């Protein structure tokens, strides 16, 4: 039982829910990079390498933020605050799986994907977690580029190139990240303030943050229809993007007009469905209309 509990602690250390979402986005990039699936084995091995590096970044994030995590309700049950793992063992684990992921990508996928994945790891685990998170209320905007990389990683794993369409997928996630995370930050603003983490609701107030969510949702609406404008996708995607972005706009405006901050979680929860469904729409359009 102790071994099972220990394995579960290491598993949780990797932030599996976040990694799963990243893998879905990477898979979308892979599937959109070619007209039909040419190699299932290449997709699986690429996802494995990306997953290990993503898990490594998540583990490093938890090592660095262990004290802040211990004082926040959302994170105080993580393995490090609970004393289930030591910072040293967690750091060693992060190094090992990160190295394994990089080697898998280098030897079995391609060098470009390895370099892009390592850049994403460094961007999130070190630049964002250690510096940006506590340096500026624009931490989510600037650091969001690392979190937006998965579709590009997936595309590069298949094509071994950096192509404009792949960068457009990155742009969608990049524009989606601020309204997604700021909605959560409004709900958890007191916990961030307690730890002196300069999230936008803490430094500029909830009202200003709600306005920024609306503005970024408008930007996201515009960005979301770009795949249709540049002929990357067709009518199925366009209709889906307009409907999903309109719903997101509805949630953001309701949040802006509401005095109840609990509505922030409704916006946050829908944003998760949004990014998943808009990529599903891209895939449906790609494979049903050829």
Helix content: over 70%
**What characterizes the major β-sheet?**
none
The DSSP helix count reads 15
CATH architecture of the largest domain: Orthogonal Bundle
H and E order: HHHHHHHHHHHHHHH
What overall form do the CA principal axes indicate?
A: globular
Number of domains: 2
Structure summary, number of beta strands:
0
Structural account:
There is one protein chain. With 290 residues, this protein is mainly alpha-helical. It has two domains: 1-160, Tetracycline Repressor, domain 2 (Orthogonal Bundle), CATH 1.10.357.140; 163-290, Four Helix Bundle (Hemerythrin (Met), subunit A) (Up-down Bundle), CATH 1.20.120. The chain contains 15 helices and no strands. The protein has helices at residues 2-13, 16-32, 40-64, 66-70, 87-108, 111-135, 139-147, 150-159, 164-187, 189-194, 200-204, 206-224, 226-229, 235-257, 263-288. Helix 12 (206-224) packs antiparallel against helix 14.
């Amino acid at each position: 039982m102790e071994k099972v509990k220990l394995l579960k602690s290491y598993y949780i250390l990797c932030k599996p829910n976040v990694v799963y979402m990243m893998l879905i986005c990477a898979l979308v990039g892979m599937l959109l990079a070619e007209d039909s699936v040419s190699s299932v084995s290449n997709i699986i091995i690429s996802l494995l390498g990306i997953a290990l590096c993503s898990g490594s970044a998540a583990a490093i994030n938890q090592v660095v933020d262990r004290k802040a995590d211990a004082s926040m309700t959302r994170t105080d049950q993580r393995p490090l605050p609970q004393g289930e793992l030591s910072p040293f063992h967690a750091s060693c684990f992060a190094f090992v799986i990160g190295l394994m992921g990089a080697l898998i990508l280098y030897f079995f996928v391609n060098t470009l994907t390895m370099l892009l994945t390592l850049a994403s790891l460094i961007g999130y685990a070190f630049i964002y977690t250690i510096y940006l998170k506590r340096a500026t209320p624009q931490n989510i905007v600037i650091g969001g580029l690392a979190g937006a990389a998965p579709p590009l990683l997936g595309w590069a794993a298949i094509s071994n190139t950096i192509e404009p369409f792949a960068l457009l997928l990155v742009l969608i996630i990049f524009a989606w990240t601020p309204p997604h995370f700021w909605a959560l930050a409004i709900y958890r603003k007191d916990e961030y303030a307690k730890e002196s983490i300069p999230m936008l609701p803490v430094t500029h107030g909830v009202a200003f943050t709600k306005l920024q969510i609306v503005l970024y949702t408008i930007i996201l609406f515009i960005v979301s229809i770009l795949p249709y404008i540049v002929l990357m996708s067709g009518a199925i995607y366009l209709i889906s993007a307009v409907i999903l972005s309109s719903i997101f706009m509805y949630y953001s405006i309701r949040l802006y007009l509401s005095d109840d901050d609990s509505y922030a979680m409704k916006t946050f929860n829908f944003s998760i469905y949004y990014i998943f469904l808009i990529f599903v729409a891209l895939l449906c359009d790609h494979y049903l209309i050829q």
